Amino acid sequence: MTLELKETRIEGSVVYDGSFLKVERDKVRLPDGSTSHREYFRHPGAVVILPLLPDGRILLERQFRYPNAQVFIEFPAGKIDPGEDHLACARRELEEETGYTAGKWRFVCTIHNAIAYSDEHLELFVAEDLRPGPQKLDQGEFLELFSVTLPELLDMVKRGEITDVKTIIGAFWLEKILSGAWLPA
């Protein structure tokens, strides 16, 4: 016998509607018939780029993230604009943040990084055949670029220097892709 796990929305409202995030609060019917409330963030989704330089090194960024008051090491990433194609967003974000353009793109996977309190999804892409160009950072955006080898990247994850979930997942995907064990979708 399979337990019915679906929760059904009865009613709800927007608690906060910002320029980037929206917070909603819904009353829901639980599988056993009782009711409860769910508060969650609505997020437009984002792309994550796993950029492979021509010499085999991997391009990363250092960026200060205000909510945690620290500099994080991350893959280039950015928010998907309304109606924007995911690959077009990845191309735009790579060029804006790093200045690079890519001759080859491969979709890797979709991840949901905060399923308990957000509908955010991240679309991961491998970018290869990179060509340098000028960065086109947004106003107020500051980041530092650097490159590492795959073993260095994995060591940074192992040592806890990289704690960003999208970057950790991307690193593990790159390890499988570069070894030939996994092929992107």
TrEMBL record:
InterPro entries reported for this sequence: NUDIX_hydrolase-like_dom_sf, NUDIX_hydrolase_CS, NUDIX_hydrolase_dom
Span of the secretion signal?
none
Residue ranges annotated for the Nudix hydrolase domain, each copy included: 39-170
Write out the entry's keywords from A to Z: Hydrolase
Q: Does the keyword NADP apply?
A: no
Q: GO molecular function: any one?
A: hydrolase activity
Residues annotated as coiled-coil are none
Q: What does the sequence similarity comment in the record state about its family?
A: Belongs to the Nudix hydrolase family. NudK subfamily.
Q: Specify the protein name.
A: GDP-mannose pyrophosphatase
Organism equals: Massilia hydrophila
Q: What is the lineage of its organism?
A: Bacteria, Pseudomonadati, Pseudomonadota, Betaproteobacteria, Burkholderiales
